[in-house]
UniProtKB/TrEMBL annotation:
<dbReference type="InterPro" id="IPR036263">
    <property type="entry name" value="Chorismate_II_sf"/>
</dbReference>
<dbReference type="InterPro" id="IPR010958">
    <property type="entry name" value="Chorismate_mutase_highGC-bac"/>
</dbReference>
<protein>
    <submittedName>
        <fullName>Chorismate mutase</fullName>
    </submittedName>
</protein>
<dbReference type="InterPro" id="IPR002701">
    <property type="entry name" value="CM_II_prokaryot"/>
</dbReference>
<dbReference type="InterPro" id="IPR036979">
    <property type="entry name" value="CM_dom_sf"/>
</dbReference>
<feature type="domain" description="Chorismate mutase">
    <location>
        <begin position="14"/>
        <end position="95"/>
    </location>
</feature>
<dbReference type="Pfam" id="PF01817">
    <property type="entry name" value="CM_2"/>
</dbReference>
Length: 95
């Protein structure tokens, strides 16, 4: 059974439903890019961690993490800090 544009988008007019459909396509494309960038970040972070561990250091570098948290907070506010913490967890696991 097929759904109507209104059911898919929550809009009450065809114009609004069309706009939402187009904008959702852009969001899906952006999310694909964001996911790709996160995966790229994870790979680069793994190279750094591996080099540090192989040299006898620790996986985690808290001073660097503080810089990153501050950067995301300055750009995006408090939720930016949460986003940075999630990114760091994806990149180095839980500490
Ligand atoms: O910049 C580093 O030294 C890294 O190891 C990368 C990274 C990160 O993913 O941003 C990961 C772990 C460290 O605790 C700090 C930062």
């Amino acid at each position: 059974m097929s759904t109507t544009a209104a059911e898919r988008t929550g809009a009450r007019t065809d114009d609004a439903a069309a706009l939402i459909g187009d904008a959702r396509e852009r969001i899906d494309a952006l999310d694909d890019r964001i996911i790709g960038l996160v995966q790229e970040r994870m790979a680069v972070s793994a190279v750094i961690q591996e080099a540090r561990i192989t040299s006898g250091g620790r996986r985690v570098n808290l001073a660097r993490e503080m810089e990153i948290l501050g950067r995301y907070r300055d750009a995006l506010g408090k939720p930016g800090t949460s986003l940075a913490m999630t990114l760091l967890e994806l990149c180095r696991g839980r500490v």
